[in-house]
Specification:
The complex is a heterodimer of chains A (about 325) and B (about 160). Chain A is α+β, with helices and mostly antiparallel strands. Chain A has helices at about 45-65, 75-80, 85-100, 115-125, 130-150, 155-175, 190-195, 200-220, 220-225, 240-245, 255-265, and strands spanning about 70-75, 105, 270-275, 285-290, 300-305, 310-315. Chain B has a single domain (about 1-135), classed as Ubiquitin Conjugating Enzyme (Roll). Chain B is globular and about 40 Å long. Classes of the chains: A alpha+beta (about 325), B alpha+beta (about 160).
């Protein structure tokens, strides 16, 4: 059966303020109430304050619900969540398990999940490579070779250096002890996870991934322009406009175009398992973006549930530290 | 991890100070007036050459929170006895600016200088000096910090 392009359906639209959510300047309830207690009648709050209150609640529920990047969990945990629900989802999980995918590493659903998941899986793959010294050197040389394209794309030199530093040091520290570490040890899997769970460091990595994606699109307009559409409105967009509004802004989700561009920039094979409960027989389609120099290279594998990306793994529990 | 955040600001400040000392590098018409700490900076902005704002100088206040650069800074024109905000369809008389890069479309790849340049070119390309629609109502009810306002961005071309 011919499948429609998964990128064009099921994507949730980004939250946008609607007119009725905006503070009404005519609203007589304009005095902000300083202390909100259980007894406060929230209907007495000015619209603007109510809006902010809602937004804060939403923000805090996102930040406390899932870490930016979680520990590896067995896929059976996900299975349990879907039991009692649609049968086709459970079948799809069983299909994945039968193909040797036993684990899932979840990322927070903050719109950056694609970039964060891909970055983590990309660096972890170097970690797990048979010869991690060569894998790390290859990755660093790919990134270094790409830096001039970031300058050409118009990013500020200081901003480039700042965002490249964290992924570069991480990859280097797989092989050689980080100059900053006091015990002279190389990176452990636990430390890698820690970096991805740290708000600032993790966001710098996301930002770097977004810059790579943007520069790849900006540098090859003829290749990408026909596919650039507004994520909500579906209108055609220009390269600059698309990169500025959709790629470079944190929290804006990635679509087919961005996945293609970043795979190309990193020269990596990416496979995305589309987990959408659509196939009655429980088959899961893997959409492949083969951009590695060696096409047979094992891909970085993500799992896509409509609106969200996590990492799919062949292991179901965390690896032990290498250097113990 | 506020260490990392303020490191970015320190680097930006350093870069701005180096540029300002070198007439060949500095952005014409933009000057750092004050940056005593990493929380609040002031710039003067003027549009050089022909524009509706010839011979007018404006002051911009930029406030950072600890999440900069992942959250946008709060940027507004200073309103005082000495300086007034520009009369512009996207600038309210309390100094608040309606520009998407200061809100929804903020990207951490932008810098403070990039903001100043964007605002300068917003003034340079203005065709008609007029206040935003609903200025009085907005100014009457606006929060002190413009980041607390949800602006609706309709027109990037003005």
């Amino acid at each position: 059966m011919e499948r429609e392009d998964p990128s064009i359906r099921d994507l949730p639209s980004a939250p946008r303020p609607r007119a009725h959510e905006l503070p009404d300047p005519q609203d007589p309830r304009t005095e902000w109430i300083n202390e909100i207690t259980e007894d406060t009648d929230i209907t007495s709050l000015p619209t603007a304050q109510l809006y902010e209150l809602n937004q804060n609640l939403l923000d805090s529920s996102i930040s406390s619900a899932t870490p930016l990047m979680a520990e590896l969990a067995p896929l059976t945990v996900l299975r349990a969540e879907y039991e009692g629900g649609s049968d086709s989802f459970v079948k799809q999980i069983d299909f994945l398990i039968s193909k040797g995918y036993e684990g899932i590493r979840r990322s927070r659903g903050d719109g950056d999940c694609f970039y964060r998941s891909l970055a983590f899986a990309y660096i972890e793959r170097i970690f797990n490579a048979e010869d991690w010294g060569i894998a790390a050197a290859k990755s660093i040389s790919t990134l270094e070779a790409f830096l001039p394209k970031l300058h050409e794309a118009g990013f500020d030199g200081m901003v480039i250096d700042e965002s490249y530093e964290i992924p570069r040091d991480l990859i280097r520290s797989i092989v050689e002890p980080n100059p900053g570490s006091n015990n002279g040890q190389t990176l452990t899997p636990a430390q890698l996870l820690e970096v991805f769970q740290n708000d600032s460091q993790s966001n710098y990595i996301v930002m770097f991934m977004r810059m790579l994606t943007s520069a790849q699109i900006r540098g090859n307009p003829e290749e990408y322009e026909p596919f650039l559409t507004h994520p909500d409105l579906g209108e055609q967009m220009g390269v600059k406009e698309f990169c500025e509004a959709v790629v470079e802004v944190l929290g804006r989700e990635a679509d087919h175009v961005q996945v293609t561009a970043i795979s190309e920039a990193l020269k990596v094979n990416v496979a995305i398992a589309y987990f959408d409960g659509r196939d009655k027989d429980g088959n899961v389609e893997f959409v492949k973006f083969n951009k590695a120099i060696d096409p047979s290279e094992a891909p970085v594998t993500l799992i896509y549930r409509p609106g969200h990306y996590d990492i799919l793994d062949r292991r179901s529990i965390e690896a032990l530290p290498f250097n113990m | 991890m506020s260490v990392v955040y303020s490191r970015r600001l320190k680097k930006e400040l350093q870069e701005i100070q180096i540029e300002q000392a070198d007439p060949t590098k500095r952005a014409a018409g933009i000057q750092l007036l004050q940056a005593d700490d990493l929380k609040i900076w002031f710039f003067s902005i003027e549009v050089l050459g022909e524009s509706l704002y010839k011979n007018e100088v404006f002051h911009l206040m930029v406030r950072f929170d600890p999440e900069y650069p992942f959250k946008s800074p709060a940027v507004q024109f200073v309103v005082s006895d000495k300086v007034k905000p520009p009369v512009h369809p996207h600038v309210y008389t309390n100094g608040h600016i309606c520009a998407s890069i200061l809100g929804d479309d903020w990207s951490p790849t932008l810098s403070v200088m990039a903001i100043c340049i964007t605002i300068q070119s917003m003034l340079a390309s203005c065709k008609k000096k007029e206040l935003p629609e609903g200025n009085d109502d907005y100014v009457r009810t606006a929060p002190d910090n413009p980041k607390k306002t949800r602006f609706v961005y309709h027109d990037d071309t003005v």
